[in-house]
Write a structure and sequence with these properties.
By secondary structure, this protein is of the alpha+beta class. It has two helices and five strands. Strand 3 and strand 4 form a beta hairpin.
């Protein structure tokens, strides 16, 4: 059942389940980001924190690209390739936690 919330103008608006789920997912994502970057003093340390968290929680081999981006290591036969994780396409349907 949709929940009611008041908008900034004070009028009541309806919130759907998907909106509520998105807010919960965003809160979870914020918590994960905070955990990965908690003790980071600069961008380099933040990237290292993200690398560590992804490496511990994803079923991928990770490394760094030449320009210091986090990369997944893909293999086909005897060949291996580094692909920046931001360039990886998500499978359809996306895996749990892809948001």
């Amino acid at each position: 059942m949709p929940r009611g919330r008041r908008s900034k103008t004070g009028t009541k608006r309806r919130e759907t389940r998907s909106q509520h789920a998105t807010e919960a997912s965003n809160a979870e994502l914020d918590a994960l980001i905070q955990e990965a970057t908690a003790d980071a003093y600069d961008e380099s340390e933040q990237m290292t924190g993200f690398h560590r968290m992804l490496d511990e929680n994803l079923g991928l081999r990770l490394d760094w690209t030449d320009d210091n981006q986090i990369a997944a290591i893909g293999t086909r036969g005897k060949s291996s390739h580094r692909i920046a994780i931001l360039d990886l396409p998500l499978p359809k349907p996306p895996p749990e936690g892809a948001e």
